[in-house]
Amino acid sequence: MIVASLSLIAVGAADLVRQFFPAQRRWIGYAMLALLTIVLGAGVDGGVAVFVAISVAALWLLTMPADGTGRGGFWPVAALAVLCSSAIAAFAPRIGAGYFADLFISSGAFEGVGVDLALLVVGVGVFLLESSNVIVRTALRSEDAPPREATQPAATAAAAPTLKGGRLIGPLERILVFALTLAGAYTLLAAVLAAKGIVRFPEISRDTDTGGRAEYFLVGSLVSWVIALACAALVWWASGITPV
């Protein structure tokens, strides 16, 4: 399981570096990330998992451009999913392993939760922030969703607000869907998903006959929700807890 945990942390953190570090200094962020991954792996007896995680993050950056224009499409996503699933299936979670694991257990913050599972939850959380945005952009590119402004005549587009805030709303929404799914709060989860549609309805209702804006919203939202639900299912599987 530690391979899946460290890989998700490395991939998610690498995308955050790519997004928020200036291009000229991005290599510094990547170097710091590699060093932190090595330190974290050493602290939990990660061993080979550290180098697997760094390699996976490097391949992810090469095959999944931040703007979603990668030629590989969803193959890198599928490969990452297979890697994480295989790592969880092949290796049982460890309760204690390494210095950081001992500190985690001695703190007593989460009784009965092993360090591998805790790191998996952290990795999923980091992955849901920016890496999932990259996947959503790839989905929109693959569907040839037209730009938001291009779906309306010039006069209408100038008068109507565009769908803004996706870069911030998307990660917050995925974290919320992930947390509510793990908590089994399905009624509240349904309310949150419905609320998003209600909030966006005035903008979507002004869409033209082409349906470009509605398609943009639906594709982006559905892909985002699927990612969050898949991550919740991965944690459920790793923990051995049967969903209620």
TrEMBL record:
Positions of transmembrane segments: 29-62, 74-92, 104-129, 175-196, 216-238
Keyword terms: Membrane, Transmembrane, Transmembrane helix
The protein's name: Uncharacterized protein
Superkingdom of source: Bacteria
Native species: Microbacterium marmarense
